[in-house]
Amino acid sequence: MPRPTPQPNVRVVTLRIDDRDLSAREDETLIEVCRENRIPIPSLCHLDGLSVWGGCRLCMVEIAGQGRLVAACSTRVAEGMTVQTDTERLRHYRRTIVELLFAERNHVCSVCVSNGHCELQSLAQRCGVDHVRLPYRQTPYPVDSSHEMFRLDHNRCILCTRCVRVCDEIEGAHTWDVMGRGSDCRVITDMARPWGESETCTSCGKCVQVCPTGALVKQGTSAGEMVKDQHFLPILARRRHAQ
Amino acid sequence: MSRTITIEPVTRIEGHARITLQLGEDGRLEDARFHLTQFRGFEKFCEGRPYREMPALTARTCGICPVSHIIASNKACDHLLAVDIPPTGEKLRRIMNLAQIVQSHALSFFHLSSPDLLLGWDSDPATRNIFGVMRQNPELARDGIRLRQIGQTIIETLGGKKIHPTWVVPGGVSEPLSAEKRASMLKLLPEGLEIAKRTYAFYKTLAPKFKDEAAHFGTQPTLFLSLVTPQGNLEHYDGVLRVKDAQGRILEDQVPPEEYGHLIGEAVEDFSYMKFPYYKPQGYPQGIYRVGPLARLNNVQACGTPYADVALAEFHMLQDSGPIVSSFHYHYARLVEIIYGLEMIERLLKDPAILDTRVRARARSNRYEGIGVSEAPRGTLMHHYRIDDDGLITWLNLVIATGHNNLAMNQSIREVAEAYVDGNAIEEGMLNRVEAVIRCYDPCLSCASHAFGQMPLAIELRDAAGRVVDRLTR
To answer: What is the pTM of this model?
Structure first.
């Protein structure tokens, strides 16, 4: 879903989220309204300034009258909508999703350069993931450390595609892409060449800053030292869309 | 019929081990073996990881001596970077390393070994532990817990947490020391030193009661290996390697740690997950040597701090001449090192340069091979890494302090078993002495685990009396 361009004359709708009466522009998504109103809603793929991907499914919410859950990041508000963001059912699904992410690859927080500054780690803490009930796949993934300034550790990648989108939509380089199917999916640079050999990468580092985990990090960092800064993104996104 | 006595698990040590004593038909000891029964695999699963992860990753080997791995690993990484770290960064690392030695030695002496010394080898095993010590001598137990806490608090003050701090990084340390933190650590030291001196004085009155044990606990001659300063004094962080024999002759001196491969070979046996390092020039298994507090004190002329030097002189008088050979005196050496550690921490903290803010050198990897050697509480610790062009580990070798002592530990349990175990009338106290000699070495087996090839699977069939009837080996 492309990022909507704010229109000058849009209607305002009223809706109810977690028993609070709220108003919102009709072109807004549920996740935007929640965040404007400080209603916590988890997400690992959504990022203000990037197009909507709807891949992580952590922002699923319940809408009255609809049997199925919907992703708050890809659902527009509607007049009279009644939304629940934090039910027992949603908490169960969210915790399970986080556990699946941990079981799929090798996220060993204690030795990660992003330890203490990781969106996946803090989300797991919020979801109460004190252990993973599923067997780990234990599949070894390679580390691409060929780039002069940055490093890619597939073991810690959750395939949120933030790197793919920021590179394409903000930097305009489209160095990143996704290759493979299912659990074999991997983010790749150029045509699956080592990152250090990429001809399109501008070494801007935006992909590193938006990565929610320790998958994309700066070279030269030790455990716990990788602190990411995403403040640049909404500013650059607004400027790009204003062009 | 021949019999096998199995002591499993060996208690009051770090990690999991088993001792088997093979008795002949006449009940006399035929063979004694010390088996490390746990497998970790660090040298395999670290392959392919970035070298900068090694300090945090290899520190997970252990919860007792992680700082030792952090120091050795970061030194190996410094070697890969090919940088000299800022002097203040080095001093701060030294403080943390010494705090680790203080807390680990306190754990070994008070928590693990003092029950044998205070309550007796033959006392009830149900109470022969730190809780029994608390009942019999609460002041000593309190001192032990407090001393360990002081060491741990210094580690936490510097590194942010007691176990597995990430403050030491390749090139130095990540943050300089603040004046407030320095003051808070200096405040702890007088009490720590008071406890250390009190315990040392107490132990000197206690030790003469164990003349018999001292005469049988690992007294066979071995070599001694440790780091020493270039002047031949006590050193735990840097320095050069020295090898001394049981007669006090220096066989190797001023050997740069990077050349450890010329001195040490590593053999493997199919009955243990621990390697059997040996002194190369003498071959395997003749090249038996010991490391750790006993070896360190045997190898040096002086500690370099006032009280520790007095204690060192008294330590050297335990024997008429030459290096102290009985492994029983590891306990004594440990107490001397606690005094040294606290005195040296105080000296380093009082150095005005310790607050310098330049504590880290930054560089990319400039070598393909890095070796870091330091003195862990249990002995000389070696981390050896090879990396590719991208800085990913292609090979690593960890020579763990406890591993160096493997041949000596096997020899020691044999000696103790020969002296104390009567195969025809086995008593618990006899077997406890066999365990106790292992405790002298304070082995950390979770660190020393290593696999070479495939371990054999052994199945033993025993009769109702516990006798081995049949044995199947893969």
So the answer is: 0.91
